[in-house]
């Protein structure tokens, strides 16, 4: 079962079809014992990547008093994910890689947008893609057909990517110095907002076939995003979608949001998106 | 949606820190902007704590209201999730509270 998301069951991610053992645990143990006048303490720190029991047996009495004590933790509930995300961020920074986490509902056109972006940009910028889906290699195959490096993460029933599976994927795919890495998250507007993968920016994609009030319905994702792409604008003549209202709603939730209105199908508006990427990858 | 396993994370962290001692109280700080529903955490807590050293522990959740600090008038203001704006009209602000997802403290025996 996914360690953080209740909507999953038996969700061990598979990277290019291979099951990964991603859950590494770090423990600090320290023990203090009193033996009459003598006191000794010892501590050890070890990292292990599977569960095992810690059995410490002692054949002496501990004179512990049953007093209550308060331990101040101040620990982030997602600290483990955030730590791995910070490592990923360091990996990207070391290679001057721009990492973009693409988030949206299913069907907003993330993969089509990526295909077009790759076709237009890959001549001047190396691009690598990490594909996240619950099942199938379909999206990875579509990206592979464009000729760039791609790795597929299948989350099983997991509803979002986590930093540790991205850590394995980036080491496997080995992005080039100064390149752009696109991480296409699982289609879901809720959970991916919570999980830092180490990206430079989350880019939310909303298509005009969805409601213009979606930023108000799913505010956490639009607040977590740096940029918003309103996709499929070539369909506007056939729909009642009010694009100005959509932008207004998005900016109500996140006034700093950079908004691009475009169509991956017809290429309208794509240049501003490319310019933004090039500018951020400098 | 994701609170069951968020709660599992909480239990795992506290269990590790307790080092076998019985935990009688856990205090969390959950920001209103964190996308976590405290009621769902409460609902899951007893189930997740069962058969661990947290069994029977009291769960206290402090909800943290979002606060923005305006970059124009420099005042702090209560931040509305779906209308993020300072009363002075500015939309340039820094979020200084409301994103917490933290285990604040625990009480052990």
Itemize the secondary structure elements and their pairings.
The complex is a heterodimer of chains A (282) and B (109).
Chain A: E1 14-15, E2 18-19, E3 25-35, E4 38-48, E5 69-76, H1 79-94, E6 98-104, H2 110-121, E7 127-133, H3 138-144, E8 149-154, H4 163-173, E9 180-184, E10 201-207, H5 214-217, H6 219-224, E11 227-231, H7 243-253, E12 258-261, H8 270-280
Parallel strand pairs in A: 6-9, 6-10, 7-8, 7-9, 10-11, 11-12
Antiparallel strand pairs in A: 1-2, 1-8, 3-4
Helix pairs in contact in A: 1-4
Chain B: H1 3-18, E1 23-31, H2 38-49, E2 58-64, E3 67-70, E4 76-78, E5 93-97, E6 101-108
Parallel strand pairs in B: 1-2
Antiparallel strand pairs in B: 1-6, 3-4, 3-5
How would you explain this protein's 3D organization?
The complex is a heterodimer of chains A (282) and B (109). Chain A is of the alpha/beta class and 282 residues long. Chain A is built from eight helices and twelve strands. Chain A has a nine-stranded mixed sheet, with helices on both faces. In chain A, strands 3-4 form a two-stranded antiparallel ribbon. The longest helix of chain A has 16 residues, at 79-94. The two termini of chain A are 40 Å apart. Residues 1-10, 22-44, 46-54 and 57-61 of chain A have low confidence and may be disordered. With 109 residues, chain B is of the alpha+beta class. Helix content of chain B is 26%, strand content 33%. Chain B has two helices and six strands; from the N terminus they run αβαβββββ. Chain B has a three-stranded mixed sheet with strand order 2-1-6. In chain B, strands 4-3-5 form a three-stranded antiparallel sheet, with no helix packed on it. In chain B, helix 1 packs across helix 2. Chain B is elongated, with a radius of gyration of 17 Å. The chains are: A alpha/beta (282), B alpha+beta (109).
């Amino acid at each position: 079962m996914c360690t953080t998301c209740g909507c999953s069951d038996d969700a061990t991610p598979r990277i290019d079809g291979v099951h990964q053992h991603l859950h590494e645990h770090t423990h600090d143990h320290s023990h203090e014992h009193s033996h009459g006048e003598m006191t000794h303490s010892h501590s050890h720190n070890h990292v292990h990547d599977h569960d095992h029991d810690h059995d410490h047996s002692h054949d002496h009495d501990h004179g512990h008093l049953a007093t209550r004590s308060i331990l101040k933790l101040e620990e982030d509930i997602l600290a483990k994910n955030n730590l791995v995300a910070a490592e990923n961020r360091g990996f990207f920074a070391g290679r001057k890689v721009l990492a973009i986490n693409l988030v949206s509902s299913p069907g907003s056109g993330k993969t089509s947008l990526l295909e077009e972006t790759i076709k237009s940009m890959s001549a001047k910028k190396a691009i690598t893609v990490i594909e996240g889906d619950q099942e199938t290699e379909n999206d990875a195959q579509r990206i592979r057909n464009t000729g760039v490096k791609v790795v597929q993460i299948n989350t099983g029933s997991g509803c979002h990517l986590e930093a540790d599976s991205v850590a394995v994927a980036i080491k496997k795919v080995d992005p080039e110095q100064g390149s752009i890495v696109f991480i296409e998250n699982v289609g879901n507007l809720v959970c991916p907002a919570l999980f830092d993968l180490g990206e430079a920016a989350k880019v939310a994609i909303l298509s005009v076939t969805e409601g213009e009030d979606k930023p108000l319905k799913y505010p956490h994702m639009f607040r977590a995003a740096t940029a918003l792409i309103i996709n499929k604008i070539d369909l506007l003549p056939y729909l009642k979608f009010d694009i100005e209202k959509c932008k207004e709603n998005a900016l109500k939730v996140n006034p700093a949001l950079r908004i691009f209105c475009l169509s991956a199908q017809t290429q309208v508006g794509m240049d501003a998106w490319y310019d933004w990427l090039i500018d951020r990858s400098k | 949606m994701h609170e069951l396993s968020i709660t599992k994370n909480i239990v795992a962290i506290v269990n590790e820190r307790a080092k076998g001692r019985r935990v009688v109280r856990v205090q969390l700080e959950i920001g209103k902007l964190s996308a976590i529903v405290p009621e769902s955490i409460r609902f899951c807590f007893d189930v997740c704590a069962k058969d661990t050293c947290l069994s029977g522990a009291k769960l206290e959740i402090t909800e943290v209201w979002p606060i923005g600090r305006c970059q124009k008038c420099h005042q702090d203001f209560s931040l509305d999730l779906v209308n993020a704006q300072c009363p002075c009209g500015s939309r340039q602000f820094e979020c200084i509270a409301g994103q917490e997802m933290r285990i604040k403290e625990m009480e052990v025996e």
